[in-house]
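Predict structure. Chain length: 488.
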Amino acid sequence: MKVLFFHYSDYLEIGIPGGIAVLSALLKGHGHQVGLFDTTFLKPAAYRRSQNAGSAIFKETPYTLEDLVEDDPIVDLKEAFLKTLKEFQPDLLAVSAMTTNLDEILDVLRQVHPECLVVIGGVHATLEPEEILCEKVIDVLCVGEGEGALVDLCNALEADKDTKEIPNLWLKNNGQVIKNPLRHFQDLDSLPAPDWLIFDKRHLFRPFEGKVYKGSFITNSRGCPERCTYCVNKVIRKIHSGCGSYFRRQSPQKTIHNLKTLKEQHGATWFKLADDTFLLHKVSELEALRDGVKDLAINFGCSVQPLTINAEKVGLAKEMGCVAMTVGIESGNQEIRRKILNRSISNQKLERGIRTIVDAGIRISTFNMIGLPGETRENVFETIKFNKKLGIKAANVYIIYPFPGTEIARIHGTNFRDANGKMIPMNEAAVFNLSRMSPVELEGLRKTFNLYLVLPEAYWGQVKEAEGRDERSQQILHELESLANTYV
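Prediction complete.
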């Protein structure tokens, strides 16, 4: 059985998707052939070097990702996909889609018209299965986790057996839709190490603190115990009621095995643990991880839930190679956090947790959202000033996107499609108009957030000028970016 994965990504949006990597390893283990069509390094005609929409503040590295693609030719995506289909001749095309790239994926499939069976999975397929299965180019849809479902589907197709009763799959059948029940959650220890071999090696470009390493994303847990109003985890947990514990962890031994395997196969020494909350592990589990990982001489970054932070756990993480942690601040206004986002943690507790990480000598970055329901410009500056008070030099900032099924989307009755029926992309989230700011003002604050954060307040007047969209504002933006890089 020949299976071609379709990974749609914006140009140079690197990072190996863990789902496809594990699925590939599973299928290979069952004797199937695996191929990949990945758009990450297909250089578009409109590409211009060093083009970015927001403030880029970082320590310079000996070379950049753009240097690695400098000599790549311009590629037409449709022609490249047709060529791959012709050469690989898959029996099955496996597609993973998110809410914000679904339209682009469907457009490509409609243009190309694959002759093989097409199965689609991913978060949006789980949230809106009926909408997607209406598409003529989609034959099968996977709701929830895909490991068992995809293996069962491929095995059945290869053996020419019936596929109509495979759990987690929805299928078209003579104008009707067969909706199979969900299976029990996957045992994470039973999964193979991710298969990075099918991906372009440039996905492993990992800059950190002025140096370049090899590495990418890896997980040792699934799910999240939180119930934030802006996150789809709460919705997915409800969909999977009765399927087992939503939040699951691998054993430390399994995580150690995967890290060791990827280091040996690819020379990877810098990993981003993509778990929602790494320090939720018990102390005994962290000790086991430390004992097995410290001799691998790897570095990693992780996300941590503020209430799980204490000196003992942070110390154990550092001993095993943790050099970076990301903490969700969301908003510097704790009432907005509590009432709008269902994040009931005080600024004082947040500050104590972040200070613990800083005291351990681990680089700290924060996750922040703007454009929240009812938020004002003054509220945004509460977030900026709170980060500044804590000495944060690396802040990830996003305009909130009310994903399908989330509480925020339900309360505000958001429509995810524009007047032409197209899904609103992530980079246009300001048009949802949830805050008290205009989309133009909100986007201006997003792109200058880190300049306000890093530069002394004496420069804030100039930073405000950089919020605009005109040529003069862009010139000021780039000048201030260069200045800000001297402060990090």
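Summary: Residues 2-179 form a domain with the Rossmann fold fold (CATH 3.40.50.280).
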